[in-house]
Amino acid sequence: MENTIGLEIIEVVEQAAIASAKWMGKGEKNTADQVAVEAMRERMNKIYMRGRIVIGEGERDDAPMLYIGEEVGICANPEAKAQCNPDELIEIDIAVDPCEGTNLVAYGQPGSMAVLAISEKGGLFAAPDFYMKKLAAPPAAKGKVDINKSATENLKILSECLGRSIEELVVVVMKRERHNDLIKEIREAGARVQLISDGDVGAALSCGFAGTNIHALMGIGAAPEGVISAAAMRALGGHFQGQLIYDPEVVKTGLIGESKQSNLDRLASMGITDPDKVYDAHELASGETVLFAACGITSGNLMQGVRFFHGGARTQSLVISSQSKTARFVDTIHMNEQPKVVQLH
Ligand SMILES: O=C(COP(=O)(O)O)[C@@H](O)[C@H](O)[C@H](O)[C@H](O)COP(=O)(O)O
Ligand SMILES: [Mn+2]
Ligand SMILES: [Mn+2]
Asked: What is the CA(143)–ligand 3 centre distance, in A?
């Protein structure tokens, strides 16, 4: 799979990031999102694969493109349809977030990225658009920290696994009212908290790499982003656990349906019989091969954002593969028809 489409998925996230970056700082989050979706879809439909979107736009925004269940790949491209033989193509499930951190793009803040994860058919958990309690940590703490333990206990474990004092640990938490107690507990335990307004995929990913000065992600974010983060951590060997949150009282927003009971009914209709199950990275991204790709829209811990120059743009992407066990940073100069210069920096 990596050989077949590894390079192509880099271009998919690059194109989405470039499109979205044109709307950076313009205060229009929906446009920044929409153009990323269109660019991602257009490039995806040139790939010789039979792709199916399992996590996409859709539930939250009732989107017309990259919706859950949409078929993508060369056979979905009207121009190629005549020559297309689906039986010859590899079947792939895809989780996408073409613009992860739409607010970050709209307001010119760091940490937004175009992101996707792919695996064989059935290899990614088709999470509903609910919330998810998440715990991400570096590879050294994999299987040692536990989402069922308190933050205080996990910080002690992290401190031992990483050979640093608790005071030397930094935990990313989304700045939300629902996290007030968690933030207090982390601070009282002695660790430092980095509050983010959006973009918990980037935070989870940062835990996978030493040198980012981020040692854990704790708290509740969106479930689809949880699966994408899990795919990255699965391929990288980091720790990720997620537990669906279906009670609107816990998150204090109306985003996950009217009532706890209606959400439980919906989970049951999806075949999720144990709604409180804690999933680890291997369960959320269970395929034999898992690939993760991201391209910075605005600069973050791991990737620089898109930099435009007259006639082109430069991007930085990351592709992580469970198959080749590589985390590959890709630095690309994109040249339009006739650039006056090919800008190096
Ligand atoms: O910040 C986020 C927004 O993602 P997007 O809509 O693609 O720009 C995600 O990283 C979060 O995981 C998540 O969507 C968020 O926590 C849910 O929203 P909220 O109710 O504001 O916490
Ligand atoms: Mn997102
Ligand atoms: Mn998004």
From this structure: 29
